[in-house]
Design goal:
3 helices, mainly alpha, elongated, binds zinc ion, 73 residues, single chain
Length: 73
């Protein structure tokens, strides 16, 4: 039973690895977008996880904190 679960987990992980690699390659071809708040490059790892990101992690976190506090930024 555990062998079957391990095999299934391996298959899922391999598919995820492949999907992430393809996404990274596509993002690399598109160039490096900049954060709309600070202008720094949005890191490739962030874009691989969240391709629609328009802000770097620091700026997105700051924006979400302000939004939670009811501040319009
Ligand atoms: Zn930023």
């Amino acid at each position: 039973m555990s062998d079957e679960v391990d095999l299934a987990n391996d298959a899922v992980q391999n598919r995820l690895d492949g999907a992430i690699a393809m996404q990274r390659a596509a993002l690399h071809r598109q160039g490096t977008p900049e954060c709309e708040d600070c202008g720094d490059d949005i890191p490739l790892d962030r874009r691989a996880v969240y391709p629609a990101a328009t802000r770097c992690v620091a700026c997105q976190g700051r924006r979400e904190t302000l939004n939670r506090q009811g501040v319009r930024a």
